Amino acid sequence: MALPKRKISKSRKNKRRTHWTAKPINLIECPRCHEYKLPHHVCPSCGYYNGERIIPEKKSAEAKAK
Question: What does the pLDDT read at residue 58?
């Protein structure tokens, strides 16, 4: 099995790992309801994507009672 000839210093190891950081979540404002959502996803609060209704509106309990 191959072994390293020299110890890798902490600074050299940390330089290699500089890009391992977690990226922040990019949220945008929904143009219809102004809630925050992920880009290129259906808005979970209003159900619209790109100006079209994708998720049907939930029926209220009053409409079912009639």
Answer: 75
First to last CA, the chain: 77
For 2-21, what is the mean pLDDT? 94
Can you list the alpha helix ranges (DSSP code H) found in 10-65? 10-16, 61-65
**Mean confidence (pLDDT) of the chain:** 89
pTM of the predicted model as reported, rounded to 2 decimal places = 0.57
Q: Encoding tokens for residue 7?
A: 């110890």
Phi–psi pair at 19, nearest 5 degrees: -95, 10
CA distances to 7, 56, 57 from 66, rounded to whole Å, are 77, 20, 18
Q: What residue ranges in the chain does DSSP mark as E strands?
A: 28-29, 36-37, 48-49, 52-53
